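Table S2 (text version). Query chain:
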Amino acid sequence: MFAEAETDPSLSKEEFKPLEARLRVALLNAQYRRLESADKTLLVVVAGIDGAGKGATVNLLNEWMDPRHIKTLAYGPPEGDEQDRPPFWRYWKDLPPKGSTGIVFGSWYAPLIIEAARKKPDHEAIEARAAAIRRFEAMLAAEGVQIIKLWFHLSAKAQQDRAQRLLASPETSWQVSPVDLKVYKKYDRIRAGGQVVVNHTDSGHAPWVVIPSADENMRSARTAEAVLAAMRQRGVPRIPQSFLAHSTPARIVDRLGEMDYEARVDKADYESELGLLQGRLARAARSEKFLERSLVLVFEGQDAAGKGGAIRRVTHALDARQFDITPVAAPNSYELSRPYLWRFWRQLPRHGRVAIFDRSWYGRVLVERVEKLTAPARWRRAYAEINDFEEQLAASGAIVLKFWLAVTADVQLERFKEREKSPFKNFKITPDDWRNRDKWKEYAAATNEMLARTDVAHAPWHLVSANDKRYARLQVLRHIVEAMEDQL
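Corresponding structure-token output:
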């Protein structure tokens, strides 16, 4: 892929000037059309040989297009809060909305490029990093994020000549970094590593385009042409199954129907055990070992199953500065302009903190499925995407626990009627709650499939009988305490 770029083609000033004028107009027009339709995000990933003019090209795109609708996302080595979260967290949280363009500089490719260019690269690490990137890009593409990746390349001699030319003038010497000066000696290794990266991650939905970069005019023209072609592209390329995350086959059983809904605990036993469990939780959450971990708690269940009450018994044991509760409702327009997991990635806790989700990303395979708010292909794909998401959380040090609080239909009805009569609780009952009861069987089927496909060792589901609220609250606390004491 690098052969043409290493011939260092050039464009004369006379050839470039009229081409520049046409490209600038075309880019602006394409940008405004995308803003108007707002159906896709464009991410332009910038990578390649050091000293090939990548930074100058990022500036050029901002100059040639309307910079108000371009978000330049520049990253260095992870630091601070970034080190407490999964590696892709910082890219997820910065995703621009549909209609906008993001230019990613110092992207998720940096660790893979470094590994591939070592004297003795770890091929297993390369395969693992490349596979993670492929899953990440495939999910973005499936959710309306268009990705084009630009590899800036030139010959070893041209790279060295460019560095020396820039160093010769005080006005341009700042553009040359110490890394740029070392490229010439390591050129063959860097080139081979680049070829490995491109070969492992090139795809129809996230293609690599090699940009000849020895000549500034040629580099500018080729970059503009590549971005313009991406902006003009219609539709979404087909994403091969090999690029998508896959959930393992699962036998779906009626776990909800097999639960013991008669489980009870009397008030005296409840009060004594509640205090003991909250004390153990308080000690675990304040321990030095927890400063290197985080806790992610997901609460799902039928309406009126007592999620709020269970959450309050958990938070009573925690320092108020230590936890965040995220109540999840239908996504708003701001959230709908990005992939569905985006709003949850943004709420991930750093080490030493607790994130509590009152409903969660499982809405994609529950309410969105049952209410037909998303296409079957999307919610079926979501099981594997969710498993991949939670695996990344666990790998970054999070203890992930998921609770399904289950009640029977008759107990739910009693609680609905109680809420309607109570001035302190009637705000909790909505027409949607009554309507959802009519789809009890559909929700039960969706829940059982969700449990079958997403109950995994690193992020287990705990089914809790909640006909008796005291019993449910103790069960939730017990599972949390035991998991934390076991893993810390």
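Notes on Table S2: Residues 74 and 340 are 23 Å apart (CA to CA). The chain has a mean pLDDT of 93.
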